[in-house]
Amino acid sequence: MRGSKIIKVLSYALLIFMALLMFLPFFWTISTSFKAAGNVIGNNSLFPANPTLEAYRTVLFEVPFPRWFLNSFIVAALVTILNLIFDSMAGYALARLRFPGSKTIFLIILGSMMVPAQVTMIPVFKILQGMGMVDTYRGLIVPFMASAFGIFLMKQFFESLPRELEEAAMMDGCSHFRIFWQIILPLSSPALAALAIFTFLASWNSFMMPLIIVSVPEMYTLPLGIAMFKQQYSTNWTVLMAASVLITLPVAVLYLFFQRWFIEGISFSGLKG
User: Which of 13, 102, 151, 260 has its CA 20 to 30 A from that of 110?
Assistant: First the structure.
């Protein structure tokens, strides 16, 4: 009994140590954002000697950070909403409806997850260029309206729901769409929350695809705008860290708000280890 308590205490101590170790880079980011511009290089202190909001004033008022923030929010929000709609519909169709080629379609969707994103960059750009979507919100949203991972996640969750609910609804004369909309979706909040967090985070932090699709500064998203602070021969570290803190806050708030549903969605969808 005593040995098990010691093991439990050591386990908690190890977990706390690992958590602090992983939090240290983020703490350094916050600390550096409050330092003066000339007090970063050669200063190994984790705490700013004379805290200042100069870097935050630069980010908010001297560069088009609010426009970049708005662009990222519009793109990430619309991509998330569209993924919730299309991924859930496709996942339900593959999980519950039986039609010719359904298994083949699902295997193709799974196979697309193995294709590196770098392989599709040039084809996506050429298609968007031909459709006149370069340097537009449509170009940043349309190619990412649905994802193979989201379809797989929702299909796995729908298969865990009891079929008796749908059979009872069909006996009452409900169509497949009405069953999906009024019965299945209300029960799918954990999986939808998990998908929303995954999708929003991926879109919010996306760098390579916006870099290819967008070339005008007015259409930059936050990752592209922040990259401008890093120049060839010098880097404004305080401004870069202040922007990094501001770009992290929406994602942290989103995760804290959906945390309970996120954990339930992961466990019910069969993605736990």
Answer: 260
Domain 30-268 = CATH 1.10.3720.10: yes
Give the span between the Cα atoms of 173 and 70, in whole angstroms.
Answer: 45
**Spatial CA neighbour of 183 closest among 195, 198, 167:** 167
Nearest Cα neighbor of 68 from 228, 192, 251 is 228
Residue-wise pLDDT for 6-40, tens only, equals 888 888 899 999 988 888 888 888 888 888 776 66
Indicate the average pLDDT of the chain. Answer: 84
**Alpha carbon distance 105, 66 (integer Å):** 42
Taking the alpha carbons of 137, 143, 149, 151 in that order, is the dihedral positive or negative?
positive
Residue 137 in tokens = 């919100």
Cα distance between residue 141 and residue 74, in whole Å: 9
pLDDT tens figures, 151-178: 998 998 898 888 888 888 888 888 888 8
Name the band, by pLDDT with cuts 50, 70 and 90, for residue 41.
low
The pTM score is: 0.82
The DSSP letter of residue 25 is H
